[in-house]
Amino acid sequence: MTVAKTNGSLLWVSRAFLLGGLVGAHGFALAQSMSFLQALDLARQNDPKYQMVRQDVLVRREQVAQAFAQFLPNVSLSYNRNDIDRNMLNSSAAPSSILSENKTFTIRQPLFRKALVGNHDKAKLMLEAAEYDFVREELELSVRTLASYLEILTVQELLVTNSAQLVTLRAQLDYAQQASVKGFTRKTDVLDARSRLSSLESDRMALQGRLSLGKTALFRLIKTEVQPLWKPSYARIIAQSKNVPSLQDWWERAQEGSPSIKSLQAIEKAAQKDVEVSAAGHFPTVDLLLQKVTSSSEIPSNPGFGYKDQQVGVQMSLPLYSGGSVTSNQRQTMAAYTKAGFQLAFQKDQVQLDVQSSYNGMQEAMSRLEFLQIDLQSKSENVRSVEMAYKAGLDSKLSLLQAQERLLQTKYGLTDHAGRYLQSWLKLNASSGQLGEQFLAEFNSAFDDQLTLKN
């Protein structure tokens, strides 16, 4: 199993080259703006949850080594030295001093221990599950980073729209107040304008709070001050959407590559090995035992007394009765194995629902994007027409402000649905474990560096 390794040093090298290419392509933009791929790379380096799951892989790897070590000989050397002062009771003999030394060299080699094989297999399967959990966390980190990234862009666009709406509504309120004084409109029109203005100002405060929260969320991931972000390129998103696979294709990919499914499959197999290990409690254990004992003592009656023993033999231990704990353990591991099977079945259903939800969201967002692209051209033309009429004295400034507000609302709609499309696209690939470096580079190309474009 090499999942963790492929997500380790080799991927970090490829990311470094990829990041270097982005820096070369955009020059000074790295210091002034932040692409999605740059934000994701920083999140991989700094997110505590991501690092925690990575450490879990290392823990599982050591557990495999420990399980394998149980097959190898156990070698030990013990040494005892005793100085004894002996006083004989009811005797006129003088006290005597006794020196005793004992050295024991032992080699124990397991010959038959059925539980060792099961424990080693289980440790390897748990390592495999941990490696897939690491892949899953990497995919989830990509989704979390994108959500925070797009939240900032979306709220910034909403604030621009809100500002335009405030300017327009204040102009409408001034117009309604002047008209009310002259008797051209009702007082309720003034009150209605004030109510809508108050609502917009309240919305602005809420949006500022959302923006602050979005920046905090991204900062917590990347541990770096949030810089101006790249914005989605609607034209490239629409062009990339032409090659989107069908829902059935996405589901088949998810079944084959979903790290959450593969992790639970490994856990189910590990639970099955646990059942085998618990059954091994009924079997005997057999060890090869080699032992060499050297003993010496200095006593007055027999100075220089000593002996050496060398033993080679087989030691067998046969369990007879343990109060029913072995049978109870078997029932427990069987229940855990059954539970793991249900967890896997549930996760497969959940992945299918997630795939369908993301696919539907992507299709809906793309449909709205195509409509809003056309609507953007219409609204832009309308602003130009009203602006020309206003300059010619044929229309009011209020009409121009209202036309500009409608244009900004369309631009916000583009940002919002482009973000929804990108999130659904990323989630679909994450569900099927398809977030390789090639895909991330392609995904990053769906954004434009606005600072570079301006320069």
Describe this protein's structure:
Helix content is 70%, strand content 14%. The chain has a four-stranded antiparallel beta sheet, with no helix packed on it. It has two domains: 289 residues, Outer membrane efflux proteins (OEP), CATH 1.20.1600.10; 77 residues, Single Sheet (Outer membrane efflux proteins (OEP)), CATH 2.20.200. It has 14 helices and six strands. The N terminus is likely disordered. The chain is an alpha+beta fold.
Instruction: State the share of residues found in helices, binned by percent.
Output: 55-70%
Terminal Cα separation, in Å?
48 Å
Radius of gyration: 37 Å
Strand order of the largest sheet: 1-2-4-5
Tell me the domain tally: 2
Task: Give the SSE layout.
Elements: H1 3-6, H2 9-26, H3 29-32, H4 36-46, H5 48-69, E1 74-86, E2 96-112, H6 114-181, H7 187-222, E3 231-232, H8 234-240, H9 247-257, H10 259-279, E4 285-299, E5 302-317, H11 325-391, H12 397-431, H13 437-444, E6 447-448, H14 450-454
Antiparallel strand pairs: 1-2, 2-4, 3-6, 4-5
Task: Write a short abstract of this structure.
With 455 residues, the protein is α+β, with helices and mostly antiparallel strands. 70% of the residues lie in helices and 14% in strands.
Please tag this protein with its features.
455 residues, alpha+beta, Outer membrane efflux proteins (OEP), 2 domains, 14 helices, 6 strands
